[in-house]
Amino acid sequence: xxxxxxxxxxxxxxxxxxxxxxxxxxxxxxxxxxxxxxxxxxxxxxxxxxxxxxxxxxxxxxxxxxxxxxxxxxxxxxxxxxxxxxxxxxxxxxxxxxxxxxxxxxxxxxxxxxxxxxxxxxxxxxxxxxxxxxxxxxxxxxxxxxxxxxxxxxxxxxxxxxxxxxxx
Length: 168
Fold this sequence. Notes:
Layout: H1 11-18, E1 25-28, H2 44-58, E2 60-67, E3 76-81, H3 84-100, E4 110-112, E5 116-119, H4 124-129, E6 136-139, E7 152-154, E8 161-163
Antiparallel strand pairs: 1-2, 2-3, 3-5, 4-5, 4-6, 6-8, 7-8
């Protein structure tokens, strides 16, 4: 049975949703605050200029960030997504490229709903609590298989899965 994923109206609602399971302070939707190396892969100066192109490629409608519990510069990455298949395809390509370059990992780091994706920088228990918000983890690592006691379902893109397993 496939899980029913949560949906948000906009970035402000996504910030409020994330606040239910982890610290999400100093929320911002400003372009200079929402350059994310996971997606943009460039220096902040050039990425802001390229943001519209990246948003189109990844199917991103809105971006937001907020500070996690440690107040570090690694704010939570919050995206309202207009085209989840496009997001998954770009994420899959990025994950495969990172792994081929000996970078990145195969752990499930992104949590997705019907129209949003979030990567939080928080405790392991906060990551597990993301599942209570109506999200599942997205993993597109080649050959990824969640442990037998977890639930998985096909994502929109071949080679990607949604799972309730959190690599904590």
